[in-house]
Amino acid sequence: MDISRRAAIMAAAAAPLAGLAGKAAAAPAGAAGEIAAGAALAPRPPMGWNSWNSFAGTITEAQALETAAIMRETLLPSGYDVFTVDIQWYEPEASSYTYNSNPVPALDAHGRLVPAPNRFPSSTRGRGFAPLAQKVHAMGLRFGIHVMRGIAREAVKRNLPVYSARGVRAQDIADTSSICSWNPDMYGVDMAQPGAQDYYDGLFRLYASWGVDFVKMDDMSRPYDAHAPEIEAAARAIARCGRPMVLSLSPGETPVLRGDHVRRHAQMWRISDDFWDEWPQLEAQFTRLENWTPFRGPGAWPDADMLPLGRLALGDRDTRFTPDEQRTLMTLWSIARSPLIMGGDLRHLDAATLALLTNPEVLAVNQASRDNRPHFVEDGVRVWSATREDGTARYLAVFNTGKDARDIRVPLDLVGAGSKAVVRDLWQRRDLGRVQGTLVASLAPHASALYSLA
Question: Where is the signal peptide (predicted)?
Answer without folding.
Answer: 1-26
